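STRUCTURE REQUEST FORM
Protein name: DNA-3-methyladenine glycosylase I
Source organism: Gilvimarinus xylanilyticus
Requested output: structure tokens
Priority: standard
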Amino acid sequence: MNTTVKGPDGKPRCGWCGSVDEFFPYHDNEWGYPVDNDIRLFEKVCLESFQSGLSWRTILAKRENFRLAFAGFDFNKVAEFDERDIERLLADEGIVRHRGKIEAVINNARRAQELVAECGSLAAFFWRFEPARKGVAAPQTLTTTEESKALAKELKKRGWKFVGPTTAFAFMQAMGLVNDHVYECAVRDKVERAREKFKRPQ
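Status: completed
Returned output:
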């Protein structure tokens, strides 16, 4: 896979954008920018869990359907889902119909409520796992890190499901806990400036 590809403006982007054109808006406007919104953080954990064994293209194409199906990923609402909701979701052709993953989202919504009660917000919890700046590996050379392993281990201990170290690292890349844009990418500096300005949740 090439390190970079030309974006719509002719400037270089991370090579994975070259797979399909719809990756460019996601890459340019979302991927890697720091997030402290609990709903967005929960959504991303869920979508990364659904992606397990599938492509991100599949999940991104269905993202709006997922949002409709799961009450906008408002975990306080999803925590109230019951067996009727599971059957409804299993019949929804607009999402990935995998019982284990659907049940995991509902379970994780309840665990998210517990985390908020303990830590004040999901953001305050997740940002504890931001890697130190020193000794960071070259972008997009890793699929797991010590921090993603620690995050996955802590979530598992707290009863979360379908969030292993690889899923945790993909979540960290997307939500800006690391800037994993390749050095030549035209978006990398924008993301870095956003991270510098970002106020880490306490």
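Reviewer notes: The beta strands are 4-6, 12-14. The longest helix spans residues 99-119.
Form closed.
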